[in-house]
Amino acid sequence: MLSLAQFSGEESELLVSLPYRVGLYVSYVDDEEGDTDDAREMQSLKSCIQAIAALPQERPFAAAVMKETLRLHFEWKRWNKNPYGQICEDAARAISLLKSKADEETVKSYAAALMEIAETVARANGEFSAFDQEDEDKKDGIFSSILKKVAIKFSGMPPEDAGHPMNISASEDSALSRLSSALRI
């Protein structure tokens, strides 16, 4: 099984930082709604990374990367310095790197995990609006909801059957398209 130990420090940082950075990329591309929207997007980003990390049987390498992304949360501020940066170029480089060392399924699952994070952040405002009306002590419901959606996504079920809200702005949709092209999905 492929592990992060098989990559150089720079390669590993690229693979591990991308989940957080793609979420920021989508969040920052459409920054019109203010602090509430940003907070929802950041909660969505973290919850989605946690959800994918909780699926090691389905996607072992992607889950291991997400666990490392969470473990290195103290680096997020540094990774946040230039969220637009070269995300699409870095994503393409990461996929190329993985193709040189991993089987096709591992490459696809990593790319799918990155897209799920990006799409979850893009939908954050609609996903979390229902939770805003619930008591604060039900925050575990947010994580459970995202975990369920991620598990459905990895199951191969069509998105229309997974009940995803599609409140994605034109700029977010464009960013998702650029990222998808970079990941060759």
- Helix content class: over 70%
The value of Rg in angstroms is 15 Å
Let me know the number of strands: 0
Q: Which consecutive residue ranges, at least 5 long each, have pLDDT under 50?
A: 127-140, 155-165
Structural class by sheet pairing and helices: mainly alpha
Shape summary = globular
Average pLDDT level: 80
Number of helices: 10
Q: What order do the helices and strands follow?
A: HHHHHHHHHH
Oligomer: single chain
Main beta sheet strand tally, sense and closure: none
Task: Determine the strand fraction and express it as a percent band.
Answer: under 5%
The number of distinct structural domains comes to: 1
Measured between the Cα atoms of the first and last residue, the distance is 23 Å
Summarize the structure.
This protein has ten helices and no strands.
Task: Record the SSE blueprint.
Blueprint: H1 9-29, H2 35-53, H3 60-71, H4 76-79, H5 87-101, H6 104-122, H7 124-132, H8 140-155, H9 159-162, H10 170-183
Question: What features would you describe in this structure?
Answer:
Helix content is 72%, strand content 0%. Helix 5 runs parallel beside helix 10. It has one domain (4-183). It has helices at residues 9-29, 35-53, 60-71, 76-79, 87-101, 104-122, 124-132, 140-155, 159-162, 170-183. It contains 10 helices and no strands. By secondary structure, it is mainly α.
